[in-house]
Amino acid sequence: MAGSAGAKGTRCAMPEEVSAIQTAAIQQELMVAALTCNEIARFNSFQTGFGPELRAADATLARLFRRLYGAARGEAEYHAFKTKLANDSSMRSIRNNPAYCQEAAAMFTQALAPMKPALVTFVNGTAVMIERRPVEACGVAAETVRAAETVTRHKRRRHKG
């Protein structure tokens, strides 16, 4: 809460908000994998196993958008962002479904390991593909974020071929 109060009016994302953005991206990728890679059972296990943490991250994400855009527009932007994440994941799946499903299977295996990690640990250790972030992280130069995303894209392209 203290971080949220300090972030009021700030046009950047605090660490908890960055994690919520990444969590939403991973959750949407795994949802698409459930449907396009026949991973429904593991997706349901992911949703159930991380339910409270997923709901907390989603609430943080919704608060971020309300903080950035106000109540009404913030809710619309929040829904638009999550829809865009799902659409982008679906397009990646369509472009190269075998590679997409292989990456998703690895994510499911890591997330659902017998010694299941905390959601934040899993999310922070997983490469996330986000076409356009809604906001940059506070204290992180935009060039650093772009460089990290370029490395992630390069790694994904290497796995395609």
Provide structural commentary:
The protein has one domain. It contains eight helices and no strands. The chain has helices spanning 2-7, 15-36, 40-49, 51-69, 71-95, 97-111, 119-124, 142-160. Helix 2 (15-36) crosses helix 4 (51-69), helix 2 (15-36) crosses helix 6 and helix 5 crosses helix 6. Residues 1-7 and 142-161 have low confidence and may be disordered.
Number of helices: 8
Low-pLDDT sequence parts:
1-7, 142-161
Beta-strand share of residues: under 5%
Rg calculated over all Cα atoms: 16 Å
Shape: globular
Distance between the termini: 45 Å
Q: Outline the biggest β-sheet.
A: none
Please report the total strand number as a whole number. 0
Number of domains: 1
Order of helix and strand elements from N to C terminus: HHHHHHHH
Structural class: mainly alpha
Helix content: over 70%
Mean pLDDT rating: 85
Key traits:
single chain, 161 residues, mainly alpha, disordered N terminus, disordered C terminus
What order do the helices and strands come in, and which of them pair?
Layout: H1 2-7, H2 15-36, H3 40-49, H4 51-69, H5 71-95, H6 97-111, H7 119-124, H8 142-160
Helix pairs in contact: 2-3, 2-4, 2-5, 2-6, 4-5, 5-6
Please summarize what this structure is.
The protein has 161 residues and is mostly helical.
